[in-house]
Amino acid sequence: MLKARLLELEAELIAKEEAQKLAGTTELPADCLILLENLEKDLSPQLTGTVAPDWKGFLTYRRNKSELIVCRGRAFKETGMFGKWRSGLDVPYGLDTMTEYKRGFDVSPPQDLDHLMVNFGVGKTVRVFLWYGENISPYRLIFQAEIEDYPEDALHAAVSEGLGWIVNKPKNLTLPEYFKQIKAGEK
Fold this sequence. Notes:
Blueprint: H1 2-23, H2 30-42, E1 56-63, E2 67-77, E3 85-89, H3 94-102, E4 115-122, E5 126-133, E6 140-146, H4 152-168, H5 175-186
Antiparallel strand pairs: 1-2, 2-3, 2-4, 4-5, 5-6
């Protein structure tokens, strides 16, 4: 058990280092951009997208061109008489985050929203990573694959599983505590 956990921690450390290497570059390989675009289309709407007044669900937005954030959102009414309903982060200040995002500011996921982050790393090859973010805990690596292996279906499955965790996990538990609770319930 300890050896498996150490291997998992080492894999996360390597993934973080590789992702940081790519953060300094401006160009992503075309396969990476296509992967992000397809994921955005499947999980639409995007932050600040037009939605129905009663919309609640998951939304996406980009950070640093190479990172895609997926988190809960809800509809907010734009100011003004003819303002549209737009998708914002599911927090009381969601309208403010939409305004900041439209102005080009970096919008970090709030601590009270569990979220997923997709980004890329460059080692010997380019890899895609899927991370689970919660509260102030460091990101947990939940999926990684090499881009040249065309991981789109596997990434979509991992994102679906991660979104299921977000929906089902009680707010008072961390992800490891939630998994322990599930395992205890299976026995």
